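Hello Y.,

Per our agreement to keep a running log of every chain we model this quarter, I'm adding this entry. I've kept the format consistent with earlier entries: sequence first, then predicted structure.
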Amino acid sequence: MALQAHAVEILHWDRKPLPVDLPVGGERVIVLDRNVRVGLPREIASADILRVQSAGGAIYLKASQPFDTQRVRIQDVETNEVVLLDLTAKESGASAEDIKVVIPDGGVASSHDEAASQEGNRSTADSDQGADGALGLPAPVALTRFAAQSLYAPSRTIQPVPGLNRVAMRLPASMPSLMPSLPVKATPVAAWKLNAWTVTAVKLINRDPVRTFELDPRWLQGELYSAAFMHPTLGRRGSLEDTTTVFIVTNGVSLAQALPLGGDS
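Predicted structure for the entry above:
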């Protein structure tokens, strides 16, 4: 008996978003051979628009209605590496073939490295930021990287930064004024200081049992210099993705002083 070969479309990740068309009403499978989580923008973060399932290194996508191109972040759960997809759902003309994403060694930026790179670009534009001589990084980038490593990486891999010290936060157990527009509980974890710069790690927990939120620094309130989220989204309450950490950098003041009035009460 002759067997029909199963067609697979090959896409090569080269740090540019990969275009993927979805047939409305049909399921399309994207294979990455990694344990990943999917970060959806708010426009399609609903099961009524797009059903997303992930298992065994594959992502199963089924669009229930057409939508214009939306940027989606695919993040490796173990390494935090990120691949970007530009998803478009079409009534006709979209292939239903499986997609195999080929990732070269060292060819994926982690969410933290991506944030640090963006922060570095911003930092070099301002002459008053200073840099850490040991690492050759702007101070905000060195602080953010050290804080993320301190909380998530094995202690043996943490690279020391001369002059960087852990400091008292003087913050309340809960900070409702940090993200007042979202049903999120914000709890301070730890803070570190380098020269005039301070980074504070804050745990975020989604309290909404239904909605998933794409995280954006613009949701944060206060006189903040920068913010880097450990994960791109917060899953609904009770899911494995309902908690993440944001690393907030302030200049010349602590986070307690930078929050809006009432933030430290």
